[in-house]
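Our consortium's second objective concerns turning raw sequence data into structural hypotheses that experimental partners can test. To show how far this objective has progressed, the report includes one record in full. It was chosen at random from the queue rather than selected for favorable results. The single chain below, 357 residues long, was entered without modification.
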Amino acid sequence: MSFTATEFSQGLPSDRPPVQIIRSDALTGLQQLPDASVQACMTSPPYYLLRRYGTSSEWPDGWRGELGHELHPHDYVRHLLMIFDQAWRVLKGDGCLWVNLADTYNNKQGKKGTTNAPNGSNGRYDAGGKGYAESLRQQPEFFKHFVPSIPHKSEMGVPFRFHLAMTDASFRKFIGAGEGPQWTCRRTVIWAKSIQRVESKTTEGNSMPEPTRDRPSRNYEFLFLFTKQPDYYFDRSAIDAPARSSYKPGERANAGSVWETRVNILTDSSDGEDGWWNLKPEASPYRHVAMWPRALVRQMMLPTTRESDVVLDMFAGSGTTGEVAIEMKRRAVLIESSKTCLAALDDRILKATERLY
């Protein structure tokens, strides 16, 4: 495969699976890639109103700012469509796209500065709620954004809006995105970071703890599997074996339809016990607050790519997708604009190459 832009990662010999690092925002980076040059794309865009990476840019609609900090979820989704329209172009006809998204709560400031409770304590810690409220009051302004058209404390439904915009041409038009590719969503997978077993009242996993007391905690995220056409490359056998072995005899009849939530994933720290698709966040020396577990990337990469295929991550972060691609003898294109992330990415890819080759 030939590329049209930028550089290969430092120290990566030409006779080994290359990792190309494009140092730019996602939209600009994708525009540098040739048509139909990528077999699979797997990525996790910045979630709406949750984090600040310091990567503001000028958008084709005239708005200047950082992806994820638009005034309304529809503006955010419209910008995502601009990016994934380019992903459609660079993805091969039989390729697959994995997108990881989570939802956001609409929170307004109360009298004491808290984002949830009107009096600064309700719905928070049993004690010390006002102190927590005060700490929130000191947070940057982007944590305080409120969308007036959505009720206070409500989930905004961002992943569902994105799903509709990718697949439904009428909804795409409704949010002002104009004409564009129409993706097929083949499956919505639940990535469970922890599982609460109701019968035994036990919890497995280690999702991020939350102080909120008036709703269940957020312990899962969505993985959308999109394709360009009805027929595409997907090797089910690459992930079938552990899934089928994890079922009890009475459950085998349903194995084909529920692998997404019942599959047994062998993580780097797992002892191999049967379980759900329950992947714990990984510890890492790299400072990135939203890192994928390597096992999750492998699970997406296994059925949708073969050795030497090209995988793309346009929100590469600290480079988990690239590291796993090297381990699995794939080629990777990583796009990232954050200086902090790029420093970690360069180091990680170089060390992964030296370790494996």
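The partners drew two points from this record. The chain has two domains: 7-103+151-356, 107-146. Residues 150 and 199 are 35 Å apart (CA to CA). Both points have been shared with the crystallography group to help prioritize constructs.
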